[in-house]
Design a protein that fits this description.
It is a single chain. By secondary structure, the protein is an alpha/beta fold. It has a single domain, classed as Divalent-metal-dependent TIM barrel enzymes (TIM Barrel, Alpha-Beta Barrel), CATH 3.20.20.150. Helix content is 40%, strand content 18%. α4 runs parallel beside α5 and α6 packs parallel to α7. The longest helix has 21 residues.
Length: 279
C-alpha cells in the first residue's frame, strides 16, 4: 500500500537534544525532516565557518541511524537583495550548504527568493526583482551541479518568485535538472484569491508537476481581514488536490508539515493520513 511520506520541519518541534528530537520524530512516525541546523542547534554553528564535513556527517549519520531522512537542508537566505554585500553573504552561506549536503545525507538544499529590500516591498513584484533572483539561482545551480546536489526554490507571495507561473518560468529558463521547486500551496494564497484556492493549487500542480521536489503542508484562514497561518486541518485550505497528486502522481515524494506545532501535530497527522487513504 502507498503511504504518505510525511515529515516536519525539525525546528517546529523546538530546540531539543538530538536524542529527544529523534525520539519525537519516531513517536510521530515521521520519515523525514527539513533540517536547518542553525535553527535547531544554533550552539553548534555560531558562524558559517563552524560548519564542516565533520559536523554535517555527525548529524546526517545520527538521523540515518534513527531511520530519519533529511529531505531538505534548509538554508533560507535572501538571494535577491539589492545590497550586494547581503546577497554575497547569502550566496556564500547557501554554497556552503551545497558543499556539505552529501555529508548531511541530503540531496536537496532549499530557500525562498527573499526580497530586494528589507522585508516586504512592492518592488518584489517587478521584472528587476525577478532578474536578480534568477541571476542568483543560476549561480547556485551551476555550483550545485559540481556537487551532484539539487537546489529547491520555494515560491511565496511577497517574494520575487511570487507565483506558480513565475516558478515555471524560472525552471524553463534555467534548464537544469539540478533546479527543482518546493511547493507550498498556502504561500500562493492571498486575500484576493483565497476564494479560488482550489484553482490556485491545481494550477500550481499542473504547471510545476515533475519539477516539484518537495511539498510543504500548512493551513490558513482569514482573520480580521488578514491571512493567518494555522495548524493543518484547522483552516480553510483543501488538501485533497495536493494529497491526490502525491498519491496518484508522485508516490513517496517528501511532504513536510510547516507551522504545525505542539498539541496540533498529532491531529494534523491523523487528518492528512485519513484524507490520503480515503482518496
Amino acid at each position: 500500500m502507498l503511504t504518505l511520506n510525511l515529515g516536519i520541519r525539525a525546528h517546529d518541534l523546538g530546540q531539543l537534544s538530538l536524542a529527544e528530537l529523534c525520539k519525537q520524530l519516531k513517536d510521530y512516525q515521521f520519515t523525514n525532516i527539513q533540517f536547518a541546523i542553525k535553527k535547531s542547534f544554533p550552539k553548534y554553528v555560531p558562524s558559517l565557518q563552524s560548519l564542516s564535513p565533520g559536523i554535517a556527517s555527525f548529524f546526517g549519520d545520527y538521523f540515518a541511524n534513527n531511520g530519519i531522512k533529511i529531505s531538505t537542508l534548509g538554508c533560507y537566505v535572501n538571494i535577491s537583495s539589492r545590497d550586494l554585500a547581503v546577497r554575497k553573504e547569502a550566496l556564500e552561506s547557501f554554497k556552503t550548504h551545497i558543499q556539505l549536503a552529501r555529508d548531511f545525507r541530503a540531496s536537496l538544499v532549499g530557500t525562498e527568493t527573499g526580497s530586494v529590500g528589507e522585508g516586504f516591498t512592492p518592488e518584489n513584484f517587478t521584472e528587476e526583482a525577478y532578474q536578480i533572483a534568477r541571476s542568483s539561482v543560476l549561480e547556485l545551480v551551476e555550483y550545485a551541479e559540481h556537487f551532484g546536489v539539487t537546489i529547491g526554490i520555494e515560491a511565496g507571495l511577497n517574494h520575487p518568485l511570487y507565483s506558480a507561473a513565475l516558478a515555471k518560468r524560472l525552471v524553463d529558463e534555467v534548464q537544469s535538472p539540478h533546479l527543482k521547486i518546493i511547493l507550498d500551496g498556502a504561500n500562493l494564497i492571498n486575500l484576493d484569491n483565497v476564494s479560488e484556492s482550489d484553482f490556485i493549487l491545481n494550477e500550481a500542480l499542473d504547471l510545476l508537476h515533475e519539477h516539484i521536489a518537495m511539498i510543504h503542508l500548512k493551513d490558513l484562514t482569514v482573520n480580521k481581514g488578514q491571512i493567518e497561518i494555522v495548524p493543518v486541518g484547522k483552516g480553510m485550505l483543501n488538501f485533497e488536490p495536493i494529497l491526490a497528486y502525491l498519491k496518484d502522481n508522485r508516490p513517496f515524494l517528501h511532504a513536510t508539515l510547516e507551522e504545525t506545532q505542539g498539541e496540533a501535530i498529532r491531529p494534523a497527522i491523523d487528518y492528512l493520513k485519513e484524507m490520503y487513504y480515503r482518496l
